[in-house]
Write a structure and sequence with these properties.
The protein is α+β, with helices and mostly antiparallel strands and 282 residues long. The chain folds into 2 domains: 4-139, MutM-like, N-terminal (N-terminal domain of MutM-like DNA repair proteins, Alpha-Beta Barrel), CATH 3.20.190; 152-276, Helicase, Ruva Protein, domain 3. It is 26% helix and 24% strand. It has 7 helices and 12 strands. Strands 1-8-9-6-7 form a 5-stranded antiparallel β-sheet. A 5-stranded mixed β-sheet has the order 2-10-5-4-3. A hairpin with a 2-residue loop joins strand 11 and strand 12. Helix 1 runs parallel beside helix 7 (204-223). The longest helix is centred in the C-terminal third of the chain and has 20 residues, at 204-223. The two termini are 27 Å apart. The structure holds zinc ion. Zinc ion (ZN) binds next to loops.
């Protein structure tokens, strides 16, 4: 699943190429993937591409927006002749002919360029919303992991008195928005804290270390353009990221821990594959 750094990367890349473009036609191949009236968007100019948590926002003039969530397997691919820009879940559709059988929505712009929303598993969505509806949607989310609103007192208050494992808590979008499995595993390793620890058991020093570690791995993820963990597609220019080259523990079962050299273990925690070092993460 694309996490905050991957969605931030797609947002930045798309912003560079589709801001100011005018939508000529929207074709919806899968009604489940689209909520709203196509005619509201056609003829409208994109003013801004931004991100909140893992939601991408296309803002138009006149109180009109499209919110986009890539969920498990979504991709956004902008096509201008031979050039492709975008990203999301890495599959053969990054390079295949588009539209593909996984294309759910297709935008054609007035200059002939196109934007494809592909989604194998159809959990992702595009929703047409006015500004008020966008504000309501965003009000449900905690501040972003890389936002200055996540202060140590905020974080300490959110994790005190909670007995769920700390890894599960930092992946909760009501606590911090945008930390998924990859960055949660890596942040806990950097902080040398076991993912299994009850959240409330963290000392003030550990709380501080963990928050700093979350911010460090998210910032590194953004700097690396996100992670492309399916090896086959890591070299697709314009779409792949490079965080996978600096992963600390995620996906590295049996390899040496970057802190202490002991072998990294994999367990299941709340249904998710969880990588950690039992030697130095206590
Ligand atoms: Zn270790």
């Amino acid at each position: 699943m694309p996490e905050l750094p991957e969605v931030e990367t797609v947002t930045r890349q798309l912003s560079a190429v589709i801001a100011d473009k005018i939508v000529q036609k929207v074709t919806v191949f899968k009604s489940k993937s689209w909520v709203g009236e196509v005619v509201k968007v056609e003829g409208q100019q994109i003013k801004e591409v931004s991100r909140r948590s893992k939601i991408i926002r296309l803002r138009f003039a006149d109180n009109l927006n499209i919110l986009i969530h890539l969920k498990m397997s979504g991709q956004l691919i902008f096509v201008d002749g031979q050039t492709r820009v975008g990203g999301g879940h890495p599959t053969a559709d990054w390079t295949n002919h588009l539209p593909s059988k996984h294309t759910r929505v297709m935008f054609k712009f007035t200059d002939g360029t196109q934007l494809f929303f592909n989604d194998q598993r159809i959990f992702g969505w595009m929703k047409v919303m006015n500004d008020e509806e966008v504000a309501q949607e965003f009000a449900l989310l905690a501040p972003d992991a890389n936002s200055s609103e996540i202060t140590l007192p905020y974080f300490a208050e959110k994790i005190a008195k909670r007995n769920v494992p700390i890894k599960q808590l930092i992946m909760d979008n009501q606590v911090i928005a945008g930390v998924g499995n990859i960055y949660a595993c890596d942040a806990l390793n950097l902080a040398r804290i076991s993912p299994l620890r009850p959240a409330a058991s963290l000392s003030p020093v550990e709380q501080k270390k963990l928050l700093e570690s979350i911010q460090t791995v998210i910032a590194l993820g953004i700097q690396k353009g996100g992670a492309t963990v399916h090896g086959k597609y890591v070299h697709v220019t314009g779409m792949s990221g490079h965080y996978q080259e600096v992963l600390r523990v995620y996906g590295r079962k049996g390899e040496p821990c970057p802190n202490c050299g002991a072998p990294i273990q994999k367990i299941k925690l709340a249904g998710r594959g969880t990588f950690f070092c039992p030697n130095c993460q206590v």
